[in-house]
Design a protein that fits this description.
Elements (H helix, E strand, L loop, with lengths): L5 H10 L7 H20 L2 E9 L2 E12 L2 E8 L5 E6 L2 E6 L4 E5 L15 H7 E11 L2 E10 L6 E7 L5 E7 L5 E12 L13 H4 L2 E3 L15 E3 L7 E9 L5 E8 L4 E8 L9 E5 L2 E8 L2 E7 L3 H10 E3 L3
Parallel strand pairs: 6-12
Antiparallel strand pairs: 1-2, 1-11, 2-3, 3-4, 4-5, 5-6, 7-8, 8-9, 9-10, 10-11, 13-20, 14-15, 15-16, 16-19, 17-18, 18-19
């Protein structure tokens, strides 16, 4: 994907009548998003970034390689508790230091950074407005800012800084309804292409030494062949069902997971049988910028979780109902 030349855009702007916007100017934000999506998935990159949320500061190291073998990715925490995540064609595996166990799940293989698929742009434009911002210098690279602002109160906004030539995401901010930053992520050092050291993909001894717990759920890549048994009767404008998996046990235990996305924000809906000794809390909860809402219906617990405002998970959760026996 070729970057939009700033001089060409400026030239067209000078030819346009005062007070109008040229076609190239209007398309520039879309081209930036397309280049970002391609760069985050198709490029090889490696670096250290800092994540800030409230008073919490975390430093992480990521190695992302895309070649003929597919996409391979490793994320390691450099501060705080020991954590490690591996992602490849077989799925996602991660280890946490608190229980010293590794969880492995081939379903819902998601990248660690926001990605906007090309085929969802038209749908995303319904939910967000796009606006170019200033330029900046980040991790030794020139970057162009792009603001992705929500059109309603059901999603957060984003302020993205993209590497000038490749479109790689070097910094992002999650914005609240008033435009205030809720969380930030920024590379402090980054290598691109041939500079990437592939040896950093090698997992630590934790992934060999600790017990692996495998998910028993069917793969959830894309939409399931079976229609959802439970689903919300309505969701905020722009959100579409993008993934679904379902499992039923021998004793009528059910587990269903649905993912709704507007192209940037994603919300997970979980429907689970209520255990005999139910100690799961209902109502609203918050952890950082993530909100959750739970309620019971008949013999199931419905939980909605997402990096979206509280009003969104509550609206979706209250609309979940049985759609098939």
């Amino acid at each position: 994907m070729r970057p939009v030349a700033a001089t060409w855009v400026l030239f067209l702007a000078l030819l346009s009548p005062i007070g109008t916007v040229s076609a190239s100017d209007a398309e520039a934000p879309r081209k930036m998003l397309e280049r970002m999506s391609a760069a985050m998935s198709q490029m090889s990159y490696q670096g250290t970034f800092v994540y800030l949320q409230g008073d919490a500061v975390e430093t992480m190291r990521i190695t992302h390689i895309a070649d003929r073998a597919g996409v391979r990715e490793r994320l390691v925490a450099l501060s705080g508790p020991s954590r490690e995540v591996l992602r490849d064609s077989s799925g996602v595996r991660w280890v946490l230091s608190d229980d010293r166990s590794v969880f492995e799940d081939a379903a819902f293989d998601r990248p660690f950074f926001p990605k906007l698929p090309f085929d969802q742009y038209d749908q995303t434009e319904i939910s967000y407005s796009l606006k170019k911002g200033p330029k900046a210098r980040i991790a030794g690279h020139n970057a162009q800012n792009l603001k992705v602002l929500p059109r309603d109160q059901y999603r957060y906004g984003y302020s993205l800084w993209l590497e000038e030539h490749s479109g790689l995401l070097l910094k992002w901010e999650l914005l609240g309804n008033k435009g205030e930053p809720l969380a930030k992520l920024m590379f402090t050092e980054v290598k691109l292409g041939a500079e990437v050291d592939s040896s950093e993909l090698k997992p630590s001894s934790q992934l060999k030494k600790f017990k692996t717990v495998e998910s028993k759920l069917p793969s959830g890549h894309g939409l399931s062949q079976t229609p959802p048994k439970w689903q919300p009767s309505s969701v905020p404008s722009g959100f579409k069902l993008t993934a679904h998996r379902y499992s039923a046990g021998a004793e009528k235990d059910v587990y269903e997971h649905l993912v709704y996305s507007d192209g940037l924000a994603a919300v997970s809906v979980y429907v689970e049988s209520i255990p005999a000794e139910n100690t799961i809390p209902t109502g609203s909860r918050q952890l950082g910028t993530t909100h959750a809402y739970s309620r019971t219906s008949d013999d199931v617990m419905i939980t909605v979780v997402g990096d979206v405002p509280a009003i969104t998970v509550k609206l979706i959760g209250n609309n979940v109902e049985v759609t098939a026996p």
